[in-house]
């Protein structure tokens, strides 16, 4: 058996005139390559026949499919294979791409676009000086109207109610990563260029998980913020038409009723003002957007009438006033915190904390750490007789290390400026 050897001779352009010396030189080169291939092919056949070479390499010489086999042929029988395209007997297009692996066309795609810290508008931000606990005091009382006093009588004394202070302390949250020197040297795609950005993404996700946990717990709306003490659960007991209604135009109207009926500890009305934030999870995004872009609504309640069976007898058509002065906040972290069935249906309204004397929640960050901070380990490797070589990193491990640090804390303050429903209808 004799391998088929093909020649590839560069066509000569006769329009430029005859160049016999150049033509003879190229002819000699082609003949030299031909003689080399014949010699190496004969060696390969002899070795296979004598049992010194695996017959598999003979098959690979005719039809290369495996990179390691081609490398073995190139090392043991140089000149046998021509890794250029040829009409017959050469490398095919698919073989060529297989042999070169992904060297010809490599692309590094960037990381996903990460969500920002979306719950910040709903909390009062405060700068903390150090790691000691901070106290927040809520003083009630002495706001009831004065009573009628008979001539010569004494007025009734009013007393302040000193509640237990609300306290919290900031904590530091850290993570770091290490890249070995060999990986840095081999990185020709810039894989590690966005390493600091990835650490910041993780830190911001930690902040958002913390903030979400202030108003969401495993069962839906956080019981520390939404309870009977604040009377801010959207249910019949607090003035709603139904218990825990789903997100709808009727549910929003029930939420407004409860906010409008808020009272302090003395039983007198509280005036709530400012921008409203409608928060909800991913499964309610279509419902929320429909409500935000609704032009009109037809109602048989709250102005319309219905018969005894509950069927409407009169409709009123209104403009979509319910979402005026309202900003929607779709929080994709809610299903990560609320792991029960109510995670998908929970929603609520929180008023602008900066417009309230008592915000619903407070978030404190250490001074200088308003956002996550990234640090790198100072390189400590020095060339003998030279300066510090930053690319060599640590003296012992020759790695480069990055760390992200964020310092924060927070607590529920007062729930009178927020209402919520788990959307279960029960």
Q: Biggest sheet: strands, sense, closure?
A: 5 strands, mixed
- Please tell me the total number of domains: 2
CATH topology of the largest domain: phage-related protein like fold
| CATH top level assignment of the largest domain | Alpha Beta
Write the H/E string, N to C. HHHHEEEEEEHHEEHEHEEEEEHEEEEE
Report strand %: 15-25%
Please tally the β strands and state the result. 19
Estimate the global geometry from the Cα principal axes: elongated
Question: How would you characterize the overall build of this protein?
Answer:
The protein is of the alpha+beta class and 426 residues long. It has two domains: 30-99, no CATH class; 120-421, phage-related protein like fold (Alpha-Beta Complex), CATH 3.90.1690. The protein is 25% helix and 20% strand. The chain contains nine helices and 19 strands. It has helices spanning 20-49, 55-62, 67-76, 93-99, 181-186, 195-215, 249-260, 285-292, 334-337, and strands at residues 124-128, 134-136, 139-141, 160-162, 166-168, 171-180, 216-217, 220-221, 276-280, 296-299, 305-306, 312-314, 316-319, 326-330, 347-351, 361-366, 373-376, 399-412, 418-421. Strands 1, 6, 16, 17 and 18 form a five-stranded mixed β-sheet that branches. The chain has a four-stranded mixed β-sheet with strand order 14-9-15-19, covered by helices on one side. β11 and β12 form a beta hairpin. α2 packs across α3. 22% of the residues are buried.
């Amino acid at each position: 058996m004799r391998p088929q050897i093909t020649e590839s001779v560069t066509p000569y352009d006769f329009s430029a005139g005859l160049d016999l010396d150049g033509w003879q030189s190229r002819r000699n080169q082609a003949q030299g390559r031909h003689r080399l291939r014949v010699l190496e092919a004969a060696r390969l056949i002899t070795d296979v026949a004598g049992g010194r070479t695996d017959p598999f390499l003979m098959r690979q010489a005719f039809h290369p499919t495996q990179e390691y086999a081609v490398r073995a042929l190139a090392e043991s029988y140089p000149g046998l294979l021509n890794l250029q395209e040829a009409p017959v007997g050469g490398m095919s297009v698919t073989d060529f791409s297989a042999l070169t692996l992904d060297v010809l066309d490599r692309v590094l795609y960037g990381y996903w676009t990460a969500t920002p810290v979306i719950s910040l508008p709903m909390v009062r931000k405060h700068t903390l000086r150090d790691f000691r606990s901070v106290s927040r005091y809520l003083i009630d009382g002495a706001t009831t109207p004065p009573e009628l006093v008979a001539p010569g009588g004494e007025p009734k004394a009013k007393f302040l109610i000193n509640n237990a202070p609300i306290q919290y302390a900031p904590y530091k949250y850290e993570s770091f990563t290490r890249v070995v020197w060999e990986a840095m040297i081999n990185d020709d795609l810039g894989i590690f260029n966005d390493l600091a950005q990835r650490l910041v993404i993780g830190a911001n996700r930690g902040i958002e998980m913390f903030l979400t946990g202030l108003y969401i717990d495993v069962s839906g709306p956080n019981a520390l913020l939404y309870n009977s003490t604040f009377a801010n659960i959207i249910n019949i007991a607090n003035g709603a038409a139904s218990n825990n209604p789903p997100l709808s135009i009727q549910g929003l109207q029930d939420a407004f009723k409860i906010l409008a009926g808020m009272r302090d500890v003395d039983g007198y009305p509280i005036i709530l003002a400012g921008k409203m934030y409608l928060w909800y999870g991913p499964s309610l995004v279509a419902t929320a957007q429909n409500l935000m872009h609704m032009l009109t609504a037809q109602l048989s309640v709250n102005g319309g009438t219905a018969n005894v069976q509950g069927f409407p007898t009169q409709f009123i058509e209104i403009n979509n006033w319910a979402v005026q002065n309202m900003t929607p906040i779709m929080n994709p972290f809610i299903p990560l915190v609320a792991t029960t069935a109510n995670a998908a249906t929970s929603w609520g309204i929180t008023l602008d904390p900066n417009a309230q004397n008592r915000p619903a929640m407070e978030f404190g960050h250490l001074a200088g750490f308003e956002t996550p901070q990234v640090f790198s380990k100072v390189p400590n490797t020095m060339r003998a007789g030279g300066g510090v070589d930053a690319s060599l990193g640590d003296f012992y491990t020759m790695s480069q290390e990055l760390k992200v640090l964020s310092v924060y804390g927070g607590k529920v303050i007062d729930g009178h400026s927020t209402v919520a429903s788990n959307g279960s209808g029960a």
